[in-house]
Design a protein that fits this description.
alpha/beta; Mannitol-specific EII, Chain A; six-stranded mixed beta sheet
């Protein structure tokens, strides 16, 4: 599965409004309120926020990948957002976070979940790609960037 397959315009926010880590995570989770693949949005919220309490998912270089696993989804779901000026996210490198990729996996799809986390991390490790995402103006541009960047990866 490709990261870009998870992203649809309704699951991408080109300018997140949240000012805290929890605000931003909740803003992305709320995108799934009317999604038929989601059985219980509050279980998603708990899974992601509980995971965040274990260790910050702000991995550095202005990027965070909040994630969790729960049977409250029928399949893996994802959302992406960017924060214009960046926020304090308790990132491992101490820098503010501007790019946030939310990934929620199903309990029995652990292998796919881990592969997607790895793929997102490899994509976001590219300085040029992160810069282009920060400069993107809307959700369609962001999705196009993910599609183009993934063309360079072998299928998982």
């Amino acid at each position: 599965m490709k990261v870009s397959e998870l992203l649809k315009p309704e699951f991408v926010i080109s300018e997140l409004k949240g000012e805290t880590k929890e605000d931003v995570i909740n803003e992305l989770i709320d995108l799934f309120k009317n999604d038929s693949r989601v059985e219980d949005i509050e279980k998603i919220r708990s899974a992601v926020l509980d995971r965040e309490k274990i260790m910050s998912t702000g991995v550095g270089k202005g990027f965070a990948i909040p994630h969790g696993k729960t049977n409250a989804v029928q399949e893996i779901v994802g959302a992406f957002g960017k924060i214009k000026s960046g926020i304090d996210y308790d990132a491992l490198d101490g820098n503010p976070v501007q790019l946030v990729f939310l990934l929620v996996g199903k309990d029995n799809l652990i292998s796919t979940h881990i592969k997607l986390l790895s793929r997102v991390s490899r994509l976001m490790n590219k300085d040029d790609f992160r810069h282009r995402l920060v400069e993107a103006n809307n959700s369609n541009e962001i999705i196009k960037l993910f599609n183009e960047e993934e063309e360079h990866f072998l299928e998982l």
